[in-house]
Amino acid sequence: MVEIEYRKARIKLGNIDLVYEPAEDSFLLADAALKEAKAGMRILEIGTGSGFVSTVLLENLKDIRLVATEINPNAATCAKTNGVEVIRTDLFKGLKSRDPETHFDLILFNPPYLPTSEEEKVPGWLNYAFDGGISGRETLDRFLDEVKDYLKPRGEVLVLISSITGLEAVKEKMEKLGFTVDVIARKKVSFEELMVVRGKIL
């Protein structure tokens, strides 16, 4: 069993051929989430993967209520092994938007952001961790179209994107949906820049 340690948390990764292995994008989102999250918050992570970001939050913050979703059954099992409460579903499908229990102060998402043609798809469940569709924004756009139904008043979202994804296109969509938008973290990695974009409902 492969394990990594980060910010006081030990995360079991299971079979990394079946579950996305945390990398620079995961670390950047975890660090940004630690700065934004506060005691007493209800937090949702969409697409938790191994449970890395959620585990870091749970190990470092007291009195938060955190739940996550994940479509890959191998990843969902891995996240549960790490102590994360996981609903196995696609994005928000397993949640009821009219239920107060599914309204959150903070919603996190590290979507698949690589522009992906049919020929570039990865076999099996792991494809969900990489495949952002032709634009690289297809899964993120679906998330943004639904996320406000699950936010409390004055709630916020943190999404991880790449310069490949197109920051301006993401900002434009979020602003049209009623968010104020800013970039709260950046990291240059190889040929791209990773960014954490914050959207707030005022």
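Above is the first protein from milestone M3; the second protein from the same milestone is given next.
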Amino acid sequence: MILVTGATGTVGRPLIDLLVSEGAVVRAVSRDPHAAGLPANIEVVRGDPSRPETIVPFLEGVTSIFLHPRAVGEAAGELLALGRERGVARVVALSAINVDDDLAEQPSRFQGDRNKEAEDAAVGSGLQWVSLRAASFAINTLRTWAPQVRVGDVVRGPYARFAEPLIHELDLAEVAARALLGADLTGQKLSLTGPQSLSHEALVAVIGEVLGRPLKYVEIPPVAVRQGMVQRGIPEPFVDALMARYARGTGPAEAVTGEVERILGRPARTYAEWVADHAAAFQSR
């Protein structure tokens, strides 16, 4: 049986579908099972992975855990220790490609992700482990740009030439499924990216090509972007870390790797494919 934390999230939800399609028995942890919207053919239990004592009974019979860094927070080590005591043999931890950067320079930490802690807990757990060091998710652009695309042909934002190899969440979920269901990736820290590093302005152009619209990216001052994000309720520490990351420019964390193709035996999905999969979210309503 595979225990999935972060089961309703960007990676956890498609991961569950993949595991079920492979015949795996899945137990999903949710703080609100009735609102989770998960498939009826899996077991959904009420618990909080950041408070491992709430899910101890559900570790019985579990052989593998998918460890989500935001869901488990600071409790990754405790959760895995409890799992090992109850016969868990394998852990696959979701981490980030910039996990070795200074913690203050990792924007996602300010949204609750504890990528470093999750990876370190997995490596030191005594279990068979795999760490998925994911590049930035392509879906982040939907949250940032879709509202602008729905109402016009201009997308405004900072640092037009900042580039990164965004990853499709389905590729990440497929690699996670492979790591949970087999042993061939054991002991590896996998740097997982999309197939091409594209700048902000290039990404917006791709959206326009897929939608059949002449979209344009217009760069605006970072201070204006920061003000707008904070006014929308986005935490200031996250905004500051994100703007600082863009200002530093492209670095090692933005380098394309071929790990997705090596593991899955096919090229990683392109950003254009991701846009096509989510085209409805960019259309005016």
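Note on the second protein: The two ends are 42 Å apart (CA to CA).
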